[in-house]
Amino acid sequence: MNNKPDIxxxxxxxxxxxxxxxxxxxxxxxxxxxxxxxxxxxSGGSTPLGLFHLLGSDAYRATxxxxxxxxxxxxxxxxxxxxxxxxxxxxxxxxxxxLKISSQQVHAxxxxxxxxxxxxxxxxxxxxxxxxxxxxxRFDWVLLGMGSDGHTASLFPGQxxxxxxxxxxxxxxxxxxxxxxxxxxxxPRILNLARQVVFMVxxxxxxxxxxxxxxxxxxxxxxxxxxxxxxxxxLVWMLDEAAASKL
Length: 247
Prior knowledge:
three-stranded antiparallel β-sheet, alpha/beta, Rossmann fold, 32% helix, globular, seven-stranded parallel β-sheet, 10 strands
């Protein structure tokens, strides 16, 4: 990697969440001032929930342009929204419903459809958000995590790259932590168009892999997180000290 990544390290998870919340606040307000709306792409799992509980709290709630935010997902399992494994469902119950976010602002992948169909539908929908003269939209802020195997979104080690280069959204079957599942994921093709991408990584169990991703050989087939290199945007790694302990 020739361009040095922007790496920021925080003492613990709560200071990390606070820093990511501030980053989100700045990015969304800037997008709304410049373009009248902010397109946000979120990962699943527990990490964004803590962050958005914070954003929904009194400290932040009034300072965010909630009605101008549009929420998209980086990946989703092929399960209905009420399933506890649904990224969208989890976020809806914990964030969207309590904050009374309009359904017009929420653009979820359809976990009820076969993955190929869901991927194709989602790509068609995303294209309608592209700016004039462009094929695909540029997200204003993307939140990614990283697994202890180096995966991000549902881009797993060993996946073929041909499809990733032609599609913005693709169906995958992946097994992670012994949980096999069908999923739909955004690909680097669209993620690397984003204006800002934040990797939020915490925990000592990620330290070895993180060191390889950031300082090891470039081997994206083995370490898919290395595929994320925005072409004309900012990439920020926001880490807690435990995750950064090997850097």
